[in-house]
Specification:
The chain has 244 residues and is an alpha/beta fold. The protein has two domains: 2-153, Alpha/beta knot; 170-242, Trp Operon Repressor, Chain A. 38% of the residues lie in helices and 16% in strands. It is built from nine helices and nine strands. The strands form three sheets. A five-stranded parallel beta sheet has the order 2-1-6-5-7, with helices on both faces. Strands 3-4 form a two-stranded antiparallel ribbon. Helix 3 (64-77) packs parallel to helix 5. The radius of gyration is 22 Å and the shape is elongated. The structure holds S-adenosylmethionine (SAM). This is tRNA (guanine-N(1)-)-methyltransferase. Homodimer. Its EC number is 2.1.1.228.
Length: 244
């Protein structure tokens, strides 16, 4: 899969994507990342990418033409199924399900805005969707693009050391992840739950499902309201609640 990011700060995206899972996935050819700077598609000697907003008011707005031309160049670099997404606080909230669908694309083009944002005609005419990383405003879309790239890369075959680990993550199945422990067995007066030391895989897996259900109930009851539990999961959640 390839990611193309339209950004005024290409080094920020390339630099941060060099680390961890995203960096390794690029090295192994699982993902390809290219950046496109609208400034390279300007035609004036000052390489102007922004201008004052019509109607007045604070801040600057990213101009249509450099963004449009950068997008055309990015589109030419890809093939197959493509989507153009403008990262925006006004977009649809990003969820694991949305990212899973996007992980099936051949090319995802992410547009990182700056200043007051981009000329609305670019959003209307050139972008397929707007996505938000949450109900707050950050200064530029680069961090949001990096969030998307990292979260999708985790879902691609071969990107994680252990194929199962993405399957067990929070939100994959509408639940939060179960708790994890590692050596030593005792920290102060807190010990690792006995079942995890038992070697009984059926018991461990039952305990983990019970914990996943219980902590979702405790921390994010809204998720449980959206999920239809199996009969077994209903029993495990009741057991968790009865155990206090
Ligand atoms: N004036 C815009 C508004 O209130 O809707 C905010 C512009 S913001 C300062 C600059 C850029 O940061 C946006 O164009 C967008 O690309 C990015 N951005 C800010 N908050 C975001 C969020 N929650 N999710 C995704 N991108 C965001």
């Amino acid at each position: 899969m390839r990611f193309d990011v339209l950004t005024l700060f290409p080094e920020m995206v390339v630099g941060a994507a060099r680390y961890g899972i995203a960096g390794r996935a690029q090295e192994h050819g699982i993902v390809e990342l290219s950046v496109w700077n609208p400034r390279d598609y300007t035609h004036d000697k000052h390489r102007t990418v922004d201008d004052r907003p019509y109607g007045g008011g604070p801040g600057m707005v990213m101009k249509y033409q450099p963004l449009h031309d950068a997008l055309i160049a990015a589109q030419k670099a890809g093939s197959g199924s493509t989507k153009v997404v403008y990262l925006s606080p006004q977009g649809k909230p990003i969820t694991q399900a949305l990212l899973f669908q996007a992980s099936r694309l051949s090319q995802l083009i992410l547009v990182a805005g700056r200043y007051e944002g981009v000329d609305e005609r670019f959003v209307d005419m050139d972008c397929d969707e707007e996505w938000s990383i949450g109900d707050y405003v950050i200064s530029g879309g680069e961090l949001a693009a990096l969030v998307v790239i990292d979260a999708i890369t985790r879902l691609l075959p071969g990107a994680l050391g252990d194929e199962d680990s993405a399957q067990q993550d929070s939100h994959v199945d509408g639940l939060l992840d179960y708790p994890h422990f590692t050596r030593p067995e005792q920290v102060e007066n807190c010990t690792v739950p006995d079942v995890l030391l038992s070697g009984n895989h059926a018991d461990i897996s039952r305990w983990r499902m019970k914990q996943a259900l219980g902590r979702t109930w405790q921390k994010r009851p809204d998720l449980l309201n959206k999920k239809e539990l199996t009969a077994e999961q209903e029993i495990l959640l009741k057991e968790f609640l009865n155990q206090g």
